[in-house]
Amino acid sequence: MNMDLKQGKRSENIIIADADYVDHVTFDLSVNFERMLMRRVPRADLARWIDCIALDGGLREGEHETHVIMVHDGKKGEMENFVPSAFDEINGKAFKDNLGEFAISALEVSELTDKDSLMLEILQIAVSQPEVKRIMVVPNAEDSDLYARMRRALANCDDEKVVTLFAMQPMPGGKFRQEILGYSLMSALGIKGDELG
Questions:
Q1: Which of 11, 78, 118, 145 could hold 65 in an S-S bridge, CB 3.0 to 4.6 Å?
Q2: What are the phi and psi torsion angles at 154 (to 5°)?
Q3: In 3D, which of 53, 78, 9 has the Cα closest to residue 177?
Q4: Three-class SS of residue 46?
Q5: Which DSSP helix (H) or strand (E) runs through 44?
Q6: pTM above threshold 0.70
Q7: Do 143 and 114 meet the contact criterion of CB atoms below 8 Å apart?
Q8: pLDDT digits over 73-105, tens only?
């Protein structure tokens, strides 16, 4: 696995996301909100979404380093509902804002494994690293047993680590925090709360 998690410099904060799932949910939200708001919804701002995930995961303003791992199956070379979107363009790139620096890795699933197993392995590596203090995970909790597998894997997680799992609806609890994925995506799509009232 070509990641900073196993060797070399490690970030205190890790975001692990199923990029294909996030892109799919973003499409569904866009279609629904365009009907509801009767206006075109632009593609989601990737950096804004990452910021929102970090904030929902407990990160606050300051000089932090966060490694963002976007896992994808390789069938498509990009996320169709985000800007920027091409995996080869965002891989190895970074951006810096009031929450610190975010380094992005776009990790394609190899033929030797499947996406759920790879995401679980990345989570287990992150949990085992003493330098990692905060982990935010966006799995596809709808179409597989990955959420349950992650829940079991986090049962013995160090109490010092803050782990947040994101899903579109409340899920069975565990030794982690939960947040609703839709809120961060709405923000990234430019949908404001007062539009919904």
A1: 11
A2: -90, -5
A3: 53
A4: helix
A5: strand 44-45
A6: yes
A7: no
A8: 989 999 999 999 999 999 999 999 999 999 999
CA 109, distance to chain mean position in Å, is 16
Tokens of 175: 């030794």
Phi and psi at residue 22, to the nearest 5°: -60, -40
Neighbours of 2 (CB within 10 A): 8
Q: For residue 18, which of 168, 174, 183, 189 has the smallest C-alpha distance?
A: 168
Query: CB-based contacts of 68: which residues, under 8 Å, 6+ apart?
Result: 15, 17, 50, 102, 103, 104, 105
Is pLDDT at 170 greater than 80 in this prediction? yes
Angle at 140 between CA 37 and CA 171, to 5 degrees: 85
Does pLDDT of 6 surpass 60? no
- Amino acid identity, residue 170? P
pLDDT digits (tens, 9 = 90+) for 19-53: 999 999 999 999 999 999 999 999 999 999 999 99
The pair of three-digit structure tokens given for residue 160, joined into one six-digit string:
């010092």
Q: Which residues pair with 86 in a beta bridge?
A: 78
Residue 47, classed as helix, strand or coil, is helix
Residue-level length of the chain: 197
